[in-house]
Amino acid sequence: MKRHSRPSGFTLIELLVVIIILAILAAVVIPRVIGRTEDARIAKAAADVSTIDGTLDQYKIDVGEYPTSDEGLQALVTSPGSSDRWNGPYLKNGLPSDPWGNPYQYRIPGEQGLEYDVYSAGPDKQPGTQDDIGNWNLQQ
After folding, report:
1. Confidence class for position 66, pLDDT limits 50, 70, 90
2. What residues contact residue 112 under an 8 Å CB cut-off, 6+ apart?
3. Over the range 23-54, which residues count as b (16 or more CB within 10 Å of their CB) and which as e?
4. What is residue 97's DSSP assignment?
5. In terms of residue numbers, what domain contains 42?
6. pTM for the structure as a whole
7. The domain that contains 40 carries what CATH number?
């Protein structure tokens, strides 16, 4: 007796069912992952601003005043030459960029009710908008 064996493999219907299931899973999972990525970037920016804020306080303890606007945050990495009490670098790995690739901003006097402002322009990369992440809104 001769046996006719059916070739092994998947039918087109089986493959289509698997593709449809994967597409449904992707439609549910991808938006959640993308939302978490932006949340993680915001949290990183807040942590960086907090670190820079504390480092500026350390700078003031050593030098006696905060860096001027002209000296900026660079005074935390290299001596501005305006004081012989500079005891840095205060940021060992240099100035970080925010999670969107932009430098953190510094202004003195601050415009948000503090002595100075340190902030990231946030996801829209435009300073002065609602999504700015600064030392004035870290506790919110």
Report:
1. very high
2. 134, 135, 136
3. eeeeeeeeeeeeeeeeeebbeebbebbeebbe
4. B
5. 16-134
6. 0.72
7. 3.30.700.10
